[in-house]
Design goal:
With 299 residues, the protein is of the alpha+beta class. The chain has five helices and 13 strands.
Length: 299
Amino acid sequence: MIKCFFKLIILFLSFIIVNGCEEEKKEPKQLYSLDTIVVKPKEIKYYLYPVEGLITLQNLNEEFGSERKKIILALNRLDSKNIKRGDSLVVPDTVYNDIMPYSPFPKHVSILDPVKKFMIFSYPIQAFAAYEYGKLVRWGPTSLGKKSTPTPTGLFHTNWKSKKTISTVDSTWILPWAFNLDNFEGVSIHQFDLPGYPASHTCCRLLDTDAKWIFYWAEQWILTKNQSKIIAYGTPVIIYGKYDYKNPRPWKNLVNNPKEIFIKQEEMEEIIKPFIKTIIERGEIRDSVLAARELNKSN
């Protein structure tokens, strides 16, 4: 009897355990080892957000918060004071506190692996990117030269800089965080209005935070004592492409195609390839000049 009693208890417990397991199996799960799991990043999609003048800033603030509002404006190549009534903003369905996830530039460009620091400005998408040894470290919006006063394209270098300078075009224009690119044509990188399209007089306009970051990040040229000759060039900068003035602003197309303005690594390498030999050679010369100066200091 006792043996039968224990057998009944064991059968009863087995029944409960099996039923419990069956409950868990209602939603079958496939088990993977950790090294075979591939997490696909969420694709960011975009939608149009109506603009109703300056009240839009308040609405964005309330809906997204101050920092995320700035990200949204940057994606539209705007600063706070240039929102226009009746227009619309492109807004991602996932708004981060960091602009990097929305970069139209590739995260890595192998042709730049030997290059310590490098910047590129794109006319077609009105954006810039900064790289260190081929790795993207920053990107942001820009406003390049308007149709009547275009920014020259090609290879440049950061020359001299000033925390605040006055425009050679109009003495009332104060230009914070300026970094000169062409000493004769007056082309420079600096903070100024971002209206959402190319509007400058040949310069590369930036948001205050980006201009300040570049001011401290990029390198100045090195001149002879009488300042008549360049001994070593500053950080290389490529400005490329043309802006399509006839069609809607290209970032608006992100609503239909989230990859619309993305630049592939191969495309970047094709843009950089004609200049890479010069960039590397000038970088090596700069390193040797700086090394010689350090040696002289130690002696």
